[in-house]
Every structure is written in structure tokens, then in C-alpha cells.
């Protein structure tokens, strides 16, 4: 049996990747694993200078530790009025130990004097690493705006403040089946799918 390791310890990402990769698993017969289910869960410092570098660092480390194909992502939210911040530092935007809610609160506070539309985009880079060391990269993004207030109870991270004009709702308020088609992570998985099917078969 083929295995595909989802190389993240973020519960929200684990859940979302299981949903996004279900079709790949069904088509290839591969078993989806999360970090720690086969070999140790590797905590990799995100020392890269791009989303792609950070995704590669995590995927390679987990593939080598587990001996199976590993997939990892690095993603962020980029706000035009903040010069593209928080970007690569989205997960650390409100400092060590901050929660998703803390980060959203800080973002809304920093934009409190900025009129709508507060243009933004979600960006995702996915790395697929083989145990032998080969790495392939895929990207996805979705453009939208930062809402004036949080809305919706789905998703995680910055989803409740990321407004998607085409759907008239935040990423946390659209149905999961819609988010799993239009999100930055979904689009990166869509780009990676042909390669994943190839290597898992």
C-alpha cells in the first residue's frame, strides 16, 4: 500500500488536507497519514525566505523521517494596505503563543483606520517530497478583502476575516464544499493532484 504523509501538526490543516486529498487517496488506494502516525512528528523551524522554501523544509524532513511520500504546505495572508504583511509571518503575527483569534484581532486593529475594500490574498505553496529526496512544488492563491468584522464559524486561522466578494461571505461562512474548491490550499492541491496520482500509483 502507498502512503501519503500530511506533514503538519496543525489540526485545522490536517482536517482540511484529509478532505482535499480524499479523491487522490480513493483513486490511488493510498492511505493518508498525519505527522506522528508513522515515524516521529518532526518539528521543523520555518527558516526559509519564501512559502516554497518553508514547505520544502517540512516535507523533506518528514519524508526522510517516515520513509514515505510527504506533503507539506506553507501559507499566509497578504494585505495590500500593510505592504503584503503579515505574509510569511502570518502564523507569528501576534507573537509567540498567540491564538488564531489573537491574530485576527491584531489584523483588524491594524486596519481599523483603512477604508474598505481592504484588498488581500491568501497564498499557499505545497511541497511533495519523496523519501529519496526529490521535491516538487505547487502553488495556489485566492484574492479577496479583509472584512470589517469576523463572520462565520467554519474553517480556521484567518478565514473569519477573509471576505470573498464572489460569494458575499467570508471563507469561514461559505459551505465547506465551496471552500474546498476555491481556497488557496484547495487550488494548490488541485495543481499537485496529477503528480500525486503519478507517484502514489
Outline:
With 201 residues, this protein is an alpha/beta fold.
Task: Describe it.
- The chain has 201 residues and is of the alpha/beta class.
- It has a single domain, classed as Alpha-Beta Complex (Maf protein), CATH 3.90.950.10.
- It is built from 6 helices and 7 strands.
- It has a 7-stranded mixed beta sheet.
- A hairpin with a 4-residue loop joins strand 6 and strand 7.
- It starts with a strand and ends with a helix.
- The mean pLDDT is 95.
Please give the radius of gyration in angstroms: 17 Å
How would you classify the helix and strand content by structural class? alpha/beta
Integer count of domains = 1
Largest sheet: 7 strands, mixed
Low-confidence spans = none
Tell me the CATH topology: Maf protein
Shape descriptor reads globular
Question: How would you write the strand order of the largest sheet?
Answer: 2-1-3-4-5-6-7
How many individual β-strands? 7
CATH class reads: Alpha Beta
Oligomeric state of shown chains = single chain
- Give helix and strand order, one letter per element, not per position: EHHEHEHEEEEHH
Question: Helix coverage percent of residues?
Answer: 25-40%
CATH architecture: Alpha-Beta Complex
Average residue pLDDT: 95
Summarize the SSE layout with pairings.
Elements: E1 3-6, H1 11-20, H2 22-28, E2 31-34, H3 51-66, E3 69-79, H4 100-110, E4 119-129, E5 135-146, E6 162-164, E7 169-170, H5 176-182, H6 184-200
Parallel strand pairs: 1-2, 1-3
Antiparallel strand pairs: 3-4, 4-5, 5-6, 6-7
Helix pairs in contact: 2-6, 5-6
